Amino acid sequence: MIAKRLRKSLDEAISIRDIFEEGKKMADIYGAENIFNFTIGNPSVAPPAIVNETFHEMLDTVPAKELHGYPANVGHPDVRSHIADVLNKEYGGKYTTEGVVMTTGAAAAIVEICHTLLDMDDEAVTFAPYFWEYKSYVGTVYGKLVPAQCNMETLQPDPETFEAALSERTRFVLINTPNNPTGAVYTEDSIIKVTDILKRKEKEYGHPIYLVSDEPYRALAYDIEVPWIPDYYRNTIVVYSYSKALSLPGERIGWLAMQPDVEDYKDLLAGITASIRYLGYVNAPSLQQKIMLKCAGEKVDISIYKKTRDILYDGLTKIGYTCIHPDGAFYLFMKALEDDDFRFCQVAKEEKILMAPGTAFYGPGWVRISYCVPSEVAEASLPAFEWLYKKYTDK
Amino acid sequence: MIAKRLRKSLDEAISIRDIFEEGKKMADIYGAENIFNFTIGNPSVAPPAIVNETFHEMLDTVPAKELHGYPANVGHPDVRSHIADVLNKEYGGKYTTEGVVMTTGAAAAIVEICHTLLDMDDEAVTFAPYFWEYKSYVGTVYGKLVPAQCNMETLQPDPETFEAALSERTRFVLINTPNNPTGAVYTEDSIIKVTDILKRKEKEYGHPIYLVSDEPYRALAYDIEVPWIPDYYRNTIVVYSYSKALSLPGERIGWLAMQPDVEDYKDLLAGITASIRYLGYVNAPSLQQKIMLKCAGEKVDISIYKKTRDILYDGLTKIGYTCIHPDGAFYLFMKALEDDDFRFCQVAKEEKILMAPGTAFYGPGWVRISYCVPSEVAEASLPAFEWLYKKYTDK
């Protein structure tokens, strides 16, 4: 009796979900310490100490009605004002309290934007490989997600493919850098090419095409500058989450922000405010909002992720695997040793290595290695990866 | 550039939102203490002390990765198991961990159910007057909300109108008792009549019609038993929120629960789990889930609401107003003194009384008085209500 639309997507999704279930099952059989589970995106680095301190402080000092009562749908004004200040200081922007909307994580912000911008069959374009839930977010409001395949040698956006993916019905482009699943940070050159095309297409179509920049991994970039998209494109909506920056993914807290010169600014804000209500969000969790008065500019110790990345990247390339050097997030994209990445993942399981097949992310022929694991696990997995490699090359 | 669908609903909704904005404006002009604002549904009674204590305790004792990391989409198993126990103890049910799903408040649960059950143009029926957001929740997934008007003398469901509202396309019925906006608690007789019709219609149509019982006000009932819907109807999904029971509306924490004998139980759970992801919720805020290990069975001191209700109900009926005695929630439904309830609310404003027009809730000719205000405010408002009454009767 469940909706036909949903039934269809559940049946399609089954093979992907299986992989995650498999990790739990194998942990039960062999013990979690005896398998190399690279499928999980749950941050392993502890939140900065100030997070716990601030939770306690807010619970001790803010009156219950202010702390736990209904804030405005768009969030507490003091928190939004503080985040606008943080953004303006960091990027020299023109953000105001009004243009910062607190959201129940980045996923919520994206669905709210879909609900605000898409009528039935309207389109959003994203660069593939991409986080698989994007398709569901757009589909929830009967929109259509159009993928623009990246150059699979560099994992950077490909201008020609991108331009071909745009149409009169494109309402927004969803960009995610540092990227899940590839770990790529899109270069300034890529951003300039993408935004130049968008500016041209906006003129051609005579309506805005928003650039929605999904940035949960911005704080996780290693020795590299992540271009700040609003510097390149006026109609940018930045979507942020503290899930990775503060290791708080279970707390569902983030924001979306736009500067006052974004086209149809007031309408967009009204639409997003209504979407927060219509989708049942009501407001981002109030206590989690309040801690951002002290924690908005903080981040976890990313040197731990960097160390694990180096162990894996160096180790895997030394064995002979083809990997694109990941400059951000905690994902490494590696070429499978056969065309069928699902089968490659199955074979890897025999060595107790669990990875997510690239096909799940619209990146067939590759696999995603999520390295938010203790660095000792990464180190210990290398002999298993070597066995796996030999299995294919000794054939 | 916002979606046409949304633009239409924003334009329709403008007059209702104006009323809430008006409250803020009048508070700025006259001072909040000089107006009688009965439009707000923000609980005024403090959370029980154990809530704050438990927040501190969880922050001190649960490891950060368990407390702040990703739980399963459906929530922490220990919390769900505890809530199942609480329900089974209270109502003698057969709830299991699997059948309890933690949600980002009751609103989220309802949208998740809509997303799970409704294909385009499928129908949900609810009893009018009803909480206005219901229409938006159903509309978000392109479903249709069909109102069944209550008997407006008793504010109880009317069996004939209800039966006429059902159709082959009815996927679920949304029931809300104690009710927002009327404060009515649907009697056992009402529930039996409604569920008897549903059982007959399920047979006639050959498919389940779920009864979704939205119960955020269950803990706020005064000297009256609120019938437990699953006792009367097998295919019941109970939706709960701690917003009012614990005065935590800003924290967005609740659950939905169904017993294993609900038809298509496994499919429903799979659909709801997917909907939590597709709608961008991911999971209910983790910290708020965890405090329910200690607070799930607690509730605020409702004697404060009861006192305010008595002051208003006795005072208003003594003046001459027609009110239905409200047995639950913190709302009192009062007959407007003219047919046009919008205009009646405008006239009331001249006496500094702010109320929400019944038309906003599909209850034309009535007004909603939200009495989650200090009882002194209720007391002080009575002379103003008397002036208002005289304005109409002295004409």
From TrEMBL, chains A, B:
GO terms for molecular function: pyridoxal phosphate binding; transaminase activity. Keywords: Aminotransferase, Transferase. It holds the Pfam family Aminotran_1_2. InterPro entries: Aminotransferase_I/II_large, NHTrfase_class1_PyrdxlP-BS, PyrdxlP-dep_Trfase, PyrdxlP-dep_Trfase_major. It comes from the Bacteria. Signal peptide: none annotated. Its EC number is 2.6.1.-. Residues 34-376 form the Aminotransferase class I/classII large domain. PROSITE patterns: AA_TRANSFER_CLASS_1. Its cofactor is pyridoxal 5'-phosphate. Belongs to the class-I pyridoxal-phosphate-dependent aminotransferase family. This is Aminotransferase. It comes from Aminicella lysinilytica.
